[in-house]
Every structure is written in C-alpha cells, then in structure tokens.
Amino acid sequence: MQKILSDNYQVLFIDVGYLEKGFDVVKQFDLPVYYGTPTVMVVNPNSGKIVNRATMQKWLNADKVPLNEYIEYFNGFASSNSDAAVVNPTMEVYLDEIKQFEQQQAVRLKEAYAVVGPLLQQYMESDNKKAPEEFSNKWQQVHDLRYRIQDDIQVLLTQARANVKAESTAPLTLPVYPAFTWE
C-alpha cells in the first residue's frame, strides 16, 4: 500500500480540530464542506477537481475498510485517466442545481459542526469513557445528515444523467431534511 501511495499520490494530512477547521482546504477543491473525518479526496493534479466524490463516504469509516480494498481503490485511481469530460449543456444546468443544493446543506452542516464541535472537544478532553447523552444525541443527528447528503447527491446525479439520456429537462426531486432538535 505504501508503494502505491508514494509512487502515485501526494498525501496531505489536515487537522480539522474539533470540526472548526479545514473548510478552506476543501473549498479550493470546490467542495463546500467536509462530511467527516477521515476524508479521502483523490484530486486530479491537472484540473484540481476531486475525482472520487461518488466514493468519498466510504472513507469516513476507513478503519473498517480491508487492506485489499485500499489497494484496489488507490490502484484504480492511479491507473485511470480522470481528465474531465465535456458536459452536455442540460447536464450543466443540473450540476449547477445540485451544487446549489449542496451549498445550502453545507451551511447547515457547518452550523451543526459549530454546535457539536465544542461538545466533541469536551468529551475527548474528559476522562469519560462513555460519551454524554447530549453529545451522542446531537452527534448522531449530524452523522445522519452528512451521510444522507452524500447519498442524496449521488441519487440526484443519477437522476440528472437519466434525464439527459432521455433528453428530458424534468426537474430534479431535491430532498428536504428535518430540522435538528436544537434548530
């Protein structure tokens, strides 16, 4: 695994603190928010675009991914040509709509990080082996939202591709998420 990384990638570790830092890093790759840590972003060095958006969620649980999957995953990106393809004008409209949706959700997620971040810090810096109920409750809500957003973006992309293939300009069905208990 180390050889694959050293031969094909530049690995950068970012300290996001207690969810209050790191937004400037992901912003440069046109990502409005990071969805959790750890995060693996495979970036095309020519375009500066993230090429693994569809599979980034997998790495939020990197400690549960078997080594053979790591090897297959990173070998796959190292050997693929991930240059950007020309985008159909209708698809471009859909992509803009999806990007706007993600930006709106990113604002909510950043606000949620500001709520759970200090609770995370208190818990991590305490001697408690069990997380306080307030933290666990809020953390679970944020966890659920950040996973749903990523899943829903993939659904929206699939819906957009299907519409373009069918030469349709039907509107996308944007999800609506419930409020957090503290909102």
Properties at a glance:
183 residues; mainly alpha; 2 domains
What does this structure look like?
With 183 residues, this protein is mainly α. It folds into two domains: 2-79, no CATH class; 89-165. Helices cover 51% and strands 0% of the residues. The chain has five helices and no strands. It has helices at residues 2-8, 23-27, 67-79, 89-124, 133-165. α4 runs antiparallel to α5 (133-165).
Q: How are the SSEs ordered, and which strands pair?
A:
Elements: H1 2-8, H2 23-27, H3 67-79, H4 89-124, H5 133-165
Count of beta strands: 0
Helix fraction?
A: 40-55%
Separation, N- and C-terminal Cα atoms: 44 Å
Number of structurally distinct domains = 2
Class per helix and strand makeup? mainly alpha
For the largest beta-sheet, the strand count, sense and barrel status come to:
none
Overall pLDDT, averaged?
92
**What is the element string, with H for helices and E for strands?**
HHHHH
Rg over CA atoms: 18 Å
Tell me the overall shape: globular
**How large is the share of residues in beta strands?**
under 5%
In the predicted model, the low-confidence regions spanning at least 5 consecutive residues are none
Number of helices: 5
